[in-house]
Design goal:
Helix content: 55-70%
Number of helices: 11
Number of domains: 1
Shape: globular
Order of helices and strands: EEEHHHHHHHHHHH
Distance between the termini: 7 Å
Radius of gyration: 20 Å
Number of strands: 3
Largest sheet: 3 strands, antiparallel
Strand order of the largest sheet: 1-2-3
Low-confidence stretches: 276-282
Structural class: mainly alpha
């Protein structure tokens, strides 16, 4: 799935090898309502919209994948998938806190150890699920998406021979966002007063939108100053981490990502007639 400023494009490979493309208008709430477009708040909006669009894309691709078998992915299953994702998000914030609480640490040291535990838990999770064949294909498509976007931003012809030589890593990926979230969470939780176990635990859940909003602004800055030596150093851990969240794609996977980017590029060309500077976001 690739987004422009006004549309989103989904490209899916059917079981019969045909590539299906779905184009839908996309008008972010942060652009429709000025208050939702101010710094910090727009990050919270973007997080919610990304989750919704991501699951909606998976819903569409799941139905494309099973349609030839006469089945479908229902709205109920879609709702269950979203609920499970929210539970998993909560687990990654709560479980490290519970484990580190047993160590009797306090202050900044507690928050640093908790962040390390959260990162370790996430890495173990990725290693486990990446060994599952079907999920590995998802990581390969993630790599294909990055290669296509890197090629597009380099301005080269969008074909498999050109695109396959580009990196599967990209600094604006959500994986880099995770590292920013960890650093911001250390700072935010360290500033909060120690009010006991249950209040401190509530911070971990109630402040998720705040952490996401601040992290989003830092991610935007890293994209704006991506050539800066300081930015390169700060984004290096996220790029390294992407070696876990992306895998080298096959050529047929690259064809799907190229199709999505190419269709989005056509929309961007049309949009630029009214507004210049449109960009692609994965």
């Amino acid at each position: 799935m690739i987004r422009s400023s006004t549309h989103k494009v989904l490209a899916v490979r059917k079981p019969n090898k045909e590539i299906v493309t779905k184009i839908e208008p996309f008008n972010s709430y942060s652009k429709r309502y000025r208050i939702l477009g101010v710094p910090f708040i727009r990050g919270i909006v973007a997080m919610g919209e990304s989750l919704y669009l991501g699951f909606k894309g998976l819903f569409f691709s799941a139905n494309v994948a099973v349609e030839e078998e006469g089945e479908s992915f229902t709205n109920k299953e879609f709702a269950v998938a979203i609920a499970l994702a929210l539970v998993v998000t909560g687990v990654f914030f709560v479980v490290p806190f519970l484990l580190v609480s047993l160590l009797g640490l306090t202050g900044v040291l507690f928050n640093v150890v908790e962040a390390i535990a959260r990162l370790t838990l996430f890495i173990v999770y990725l290693i486990v699920i990446s060994s599952w064949g079907e999920f590995r294909r998802v990581l390969q498509y993630h790599g294909a998406e990055h290669k296509a976007i890197n090629a597009y931003e380099a301005g080269v012809p969008m074909d498999v021979e050109n695109v396959k030589h580009y990196s599967r890593l990209h600094p604006r990926c959500g994986t880099s966002f995770i590292f920013i979230v960890i650093i911001v969470s250390i700072v935010i939780f360290s500033l909060m007063p120690d009010r006991g176990f249950y209040v401190n635990l509530s911070y971990r859940l109630l402040l998720i939108p705040v952490i996401a909003g601040l992290s989003y602004e830092l991610l935007r800055l890293s994209g704006k100053y991506r050539e800066s030596p300081v930015t390169r150093i700060l984004t290096a851990p996220g790029l390294l981490f992407q070696r876990l969240t992306t895998k080298e794609p096959t050529e047929d996977m690259l064809e799907v990502s190229i199709k999505a980017v190419t269709e989005t590029n056509k929309l961007v060309a049309t949009e630029s007639a009214a507004k210049s500077g449109a960009t692609l976001d994965s």
